[in-house]
Amino acid sequence: MMLEKLDAMRALLARFPLSIIQLAGRIGVGVTFFKAGLLKYNSWEFTVKLFEDEYRVPLLDPAVAARIAMIQELTIPILLFLGLATRIATIPLLGMIAVIQIFVYPNAYNDHLVWGSILVLILTRGPGVFSLDYVIERVVVRGRGRAERPRPSVRSDVPTDS
């Protein structure tokens, strides 16, 4: 009896739409990065100083690293919000998370694991039905399927009733 109730509960929970989880993940990670980009933009001198003194990303000039980070943080989240080129958009953010984890804040692994896990979910499962990627894929793929489907031809050797 108890196992049946647990199975019923598990079956009910399994019906929860994955697309809602994907949308929430895209928004959650996107907002985190977008806010960081706005902060960099609104406090540019402080941002460069932070990249010089605290972040110290190797191989890049601090001003260049700050500009790259700011541009990525202000543009890529928009793609996540819209669900446009979503799988591709996850890759630079995963790269940023790796750089931050390895070189900047190695003790912030709890945040990085959450963000990274959400992005890997989006990368591997896609953005879900609440995305422009989904709409584009339905229009392009379904449209292409209709265009390529052969139309029935009128055969001249078959008599017609007319």
What would your notes on this structure say?
This protein is mostly helical. It has one domain (20-146). Helices cover 77% and strands 0% of the residues. It is built from seven helices and no strands. Helix 4 packs antiparallel against helix 5 (86-104). It starts with a helix and ends in a 14-residue tail after the last helix. The mean pLDDT is 91.
List the helices and strands and how they pair.
Layout: H1 2-14, H2 18-42, H3 44-55, H4 62-82, H5 86-104, H6 109-125, H7 132-148
Helix pairs in contact: 2-4, 2-6, 3-4, 4-5, 5-6
Query: Beta-sheet strand percentage?
Result: under 5%
Tally of DSSP β-strands: 0
Overall pLDDT score = 91
Q: Low-confidence stretches at least 5 residues in length (pLDDT < 50)? A: none
Radius of gyration over alpha carbons? Answer: 24 Å
Any descriptors?
162 residues; 0% strand; globular
Question: Brief overview, please?
Answer:
It is globular and about 60 Å long.
